[in-house]
């Protein structure tokens, strides 16, 4: 996809790790390297700074990240390992990089996401042309090629309860609302479109706008920090889904990760609800 761009830009990337799956992160970074090389060869990208953020519970997580840092040291212009702060949660972990970078754009990236080779070329060129876009979200599929509906509309309690519990009767009863929540009426899309909420697995942010709203809200330890940022950054710029910005996302839903994640999911939803709808 050939999109004329303005002057070359600088990109920073943050990748937060808790229970590191080293082979998956290595695959993520290998795809990221290829996307960076492609964007640099096009003349669009001039510098890449990678932040590996250790939220892990023990020294093993840090040691594994150090090995990965050394292995990829020549693949990025700068690669920094941030460790020793404990488990800050996803949003606060990413803030360690987002609130200190001086790059034009910042990519929040899960350690289980593979980028298409032209991902950054298309995304950055689009952001350069559409200067009112503050956050760009990708088009995603899962490991087996199944579509992932990463863009979301503002959720109702029943929709999130159904997603958190996967109760068959409830899911069937409110299927229309669940489909609308996932933009199944508009995605797959042909052209970029405005969306309400973006997934935190891949968020390409215009750095000045993201910093203007303070980055992620540290009140959200895990889950809904991405929805909250989407709402706040929409006050200063547009939030858009781009169908040509392709990723493969290996992550699953909270309901598939056990009761602890379901409790975190519902706790964060209550915080989200109080912040935006119960004041």
TrEMBL record:
GO molecular function annotation: glycosyltransferase activity
InterPro entries per UniProt: Glyco_trans_2-like, Nucleotide-diphossugar_trans
Keyword ATP-binding: no
Pfam families hit by this protein: Glycos_transf_2 (PF00535)
Enzyme Commission designation: 2.4.-.-
Residues of the Glycosyltransferase 2-like domain: 23-166
Keywords, comma-separated and alphabetical: Glycosyltransferase, Transferase
Entry protein name: Glycosyltransferase
Organism: Cellvibrio fontiphilus
């Amino acid at each position: 996809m050939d999109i004329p761009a303005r002057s070359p830009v600088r990109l920073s990337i943050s990748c937060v790790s808790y229970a590191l799956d080293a082979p998956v992160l290595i695959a993520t970074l290998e795809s990221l390297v290829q996307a960076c090389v492609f964007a640099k060869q096009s003349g669009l990208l001039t510098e890449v700074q990678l932040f590996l953020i250790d939220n892990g519970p023990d020294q093993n997580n840090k040691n594994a990240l150090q090995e990965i840092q050394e292995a990829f040291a020549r693949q990025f212009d700068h690669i920094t390992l941030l460790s020793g702060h404990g488990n800050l949660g996803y949003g606060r972990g990413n803030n360690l990089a987002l609130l200190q970078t001086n790059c034009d754009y910042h990519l929040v990236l899960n350690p289980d996401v593979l980028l298409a080779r032209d991902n950054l070329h298309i995304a950055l060129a689009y952001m350069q042309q559409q200067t009112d876009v503050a956050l760009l979200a990708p088009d995603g599929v899962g490991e087996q090629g199944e579509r992932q509906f990463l863009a979301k509309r503002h959720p109702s309690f029943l929709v999130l309860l159904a997603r958190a519990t996967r109760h068959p009767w409830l899911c069937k009863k409110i299927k229309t609302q669940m489909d609308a929540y996932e933009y199944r009426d508009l995605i797959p899309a042909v052209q970029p479109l405005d969306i309400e909420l973006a997934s935190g697995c891949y968020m390409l942010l215009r750095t000045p706008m993201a910093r203007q709203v303070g980055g992620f809200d540290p009140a959200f330890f895990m889950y809904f920090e991405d929805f909250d940022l989407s709402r706040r950054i929409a006050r200063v710029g547009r939030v858009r889904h781009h169908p040509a910005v392709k990723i493969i996302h290996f992550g699953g839903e909270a309901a598939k990760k056990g009761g602890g994640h379901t409790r975190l999911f519902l706790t964060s939803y209550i915080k989200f609800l109080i912040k935006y709808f119960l004041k």
